[in-house]
Task: structure prediction
Amino acid sequence: MAEILTLDDVQDATVLIGKILTKKGHKVHCFTEEDKAIAYAKENVVDLAILDIKLEKMSGVEVLELLKKIRPSMKAIMLTGYPTVETAREAISLGADEYCVKPIDRDELEEKVEKVLKARGNKSAMSV
Amino acid sequence: MSLLQEQKYLKVYQKVTKLTSMVLDHQQVMDTIVRSLPDLLAVDAATIRLLDTETGQFVMGAAHGLSAEYLSRYSIDTEETMEMIRSGYPVAKTDVDLETDHHDQELVQSEGVKSVLTLPIIFQDSIIGMLRLLTRDKRIFTADEISFSMALAEQVGIAISNSRMFTEMENQVDFMKEVQEISTLVNSSLDLSAVLDTIVERLPRSLGCKGCSIRLLQSQRNQLELVASYGLSETYLQRGHVENEKNVEAALSGSPVSIFDVRQDDRIFYKKNMEEEGIQSLLSVPIRAGNEVIGVLRILSDVARCFTSSEINFAVTAAEVGGVAIRNAKTYQQITLLFNQIEENERFLADILDCIRPQLLVVDKDKHLILANKVFQKTMSRSENELLGCDYDGLWQNQDCDEDECPVTRVLTTGKSATFTHKIMQDTEVHWCERTASPMLGSDGEVEYVIEVIRDITTKRQLEEEQLERVKLQGVVELAGTVAHEINSPLFAALGTAQLLEEDLENQDLIDDVNTIVRNLKEIGVLTKKMTSMTGFESRDYVGDAKIVVIK
Result:
């Protein structure tokens, strides 16, 4: 089980991600506002952040940069409805583990989450 | 005086009269007299000197029985003697070798001259020269001898003057002919160097002189430039500047100068150079063109000679004829130069007009073509001769252009520049032209000519159209991306939720319905994916005027 933070300006999208991943046994914390998501990450453990790139006040890439500063070991999956080469390159350079294009299929989402978390586990094991 | 003596004098007088009447050349007259008198009068030597009225000096005319050294001594006699002669009185002297106030006493002594009878040669109450009779033995000339010699000298004066007058008349006729010939020659040519060469060759030949030179004033520097010469060596010609020589200064101020002996004359600066060149006498005259002195003509003689007034007049007249011809030739030369420059400038301008890329033409106010560059000729497939004079409107008859919009018509109507863009067909291709017409105003401010520049702006227009297409596409792509993005998030929520619902349902009919929803939502997903990755589109007719796009 992992602590997952999800941030999307479309509330239904965060709710959906929460439902899917909760069913997989993870604890999902849903946010539509950047400030609240960042504040949460400062106070709580976050293993994985699923961030939409287009938000209201900041971009998902900027949020990723802040979260990575707070929790460097945190994993991240970026979601976007409008993929561009520039955003993909920037997200990867800031430490995103996956870059997915909406509408992402439920199976695809579950698979990518598992893959990223598994990589985290391996890395932990390796570090042990 | 005894009868015998009188008879002797009469015989001598007759002989001299006969001798002098036999020859017409005054030099021959003088030579005859000085050769004959010593025998007739029982003296050792005789000389005749002629008065140079210009300098007041007596110059050697003829001599017999004396050495060249003696004859070239500095002074002829004492000042007192010379004064007496100038006053018309004879002077008889003995023991001249013992005179202490004589400048050339040594020369007199070495020549052995003891007695001298100096007689003025008078013609019509004017002194024209002097006759000297010299003996190497001491001799006291008697009053009768002096009186007879005076009469003889007078006869000599008449003979010299007559021969001089005859020679003068003959010369004047020759000079008139010569001036006429020179005038014909120089006026038949506008070639400056040919005119100058004719003058410098003909003049010394006419006067029996060695050579001639012409120097013309350079108006800007006020210096004389040697422009032509004849019979003179390069070394002599390059001896130096002559502007400050007194004879040249006098000629430049308009007065002719005749110099009998260049070696002893203060008006000559380059005496040594002249001696080396073998020049003895000189005539320097002004070259006039109208009232202005434009240069100096110098005639140089290799024998000592006193130029007569008719010779001087001839030289002055010939120089004047030459001056006018020189000015005409110079004017012609300047006009030719100017004409060549204008022609060259015109060619240069024509080359520029032919080399520029736009078509260029000029029409007059009657709309007739008066100039067309090569590009325009090529575009019209017509030669310059075919185009010039053409009616301007006729040139555009087959083209798609309205006469009211014609830039040339607008310039002629408004007087202001005008630009017009229009389409023309070349073969099967469409070309776009930008025609700009500008007025050329006359001195009255009215449009005299119109210059039209025609540029082919087809490429520019194509680029503009392509740029417009790119901007349109960019807008469409951005719009499609934005729409897709806005759809994708709710689509994701709807699709995911439907998939979750499908999983929870047990009723097959409901499962099939949700399945239909999921399938169609996935179709929308395919469409939004297409929209986010589009690179172009194609418009297609839909219904009526409406169009739809096909995404590429």
User: Anything to note?
Assistant: Residues 462-551 of chain B form one domain. Chain B touches chain A through 25 residues (CB under 8 Å). Chain B has four domains: 3-169, 189-334, 359-456, 462-551. The longest strand of chain B covers residues 429-441.
